[in-house]
Design a protein that fits this description.
alpha+beta, 5-stranded mixed β-sheet, 53% helix, 15% strand
Length: 226
């Protein structure tokens, strides 16, 4: 759509929420500025959040709810701007090919947003694999002065979280079963884990010492969190 800006009427209408929604803003402005540029900015922010998810999650208590809020901001904006582009294309006075292309992209964006809503909280295996790949890109990361979060794996019907106790050797540790039970209880209290257990059979937390010997494992099955 390189020639699109040359085909439109000059911008005369004040840019407001309702004018955008009604399609009163010229199509080039709606498409390129509020569509392409703003969506690109949101996408870059989303990528930065994904890449730094675990490091920021452990540092800031409000990070997780803010990421959920940002997800819904993206979805809402995608629905909003797709409607704006569609309505603006209907009123476009230039070549109809540009209006048609803009309307086609608006439909694609709208369908993509609806698809994300339907899949929210019910990820497929491919979605899980992609999410794990993105999260692993930001790992390892220190959870605290003693523990490092190394990575996540999806094997068969299990998600495996690997942690390392960086200042501990297996020979020096006497694992308390009460600690294992407490970790299991805490894992079930996390909403994300309960959602994941709707798609996989088990969540497995593996804790290793500083030379990668296994200290203990915590295995959570679906029935444990019901």
């Amino acid at each position: 759509m390189e020639n699109l800006p040359n085909q439109a009427e000059p911008l005369k209408t004040r840019i407001t929420f309702m004018n955008l929604l009604k399609g009163n803003i010229p199509l080039p402005t709606t498409y390129w500025v509020f569509g392409c540029i703003v969506m690109l900015i949101l996408r870059l922010i989303d990528k930065a959040i994904q890449y730094n998810y675990w490091s920021l999650r452990f540092k800031y208590e409000m990070f997780v709810p803010l990421t959920f809020a940002f997800f819904w901001i993206q979805i809402t904006y995608s629905l909003f701007i797709s409607i704006c582009i569609w309505n603006s294309a209907l009123k476009y006075k230039g070549k109809r090919i540009w209006a048609g292309l803009a309307m086609m992209i608006a439909v694609i964006v709208f369908i993509g947003a609806i698809s994300n809503i339907l899949e929210c909280g019910n990820p497929s295996r491919t979605d899980l694999e992609n999410e794990i790949r993105i999260i692993n890109a930001g790992l390892p990361v220190k959870v605290d002065d003693e523990t490092e979060f190394e990575g996540i794996e999806l094997i068969d019907e299990s998600i495996i979280y690997s942690y390392k106790r960086i200042n501990v050797l297996l020979a020096d540790v006497d694992v308390d079963n009460k600690i294992v039970a407490k970790l299991k209880q805490n894992a079930c209290s996390v909403k994300e884990n309960r959602i994941l257990l709707g798609k996989v059979k088990t969540l497995k937390y593996v804790y290793k010492d500083k030379v990668d010997s296994i200290l203990f494992e915590v295995i959570i099955e679906r029935q444990d969190c019901q």
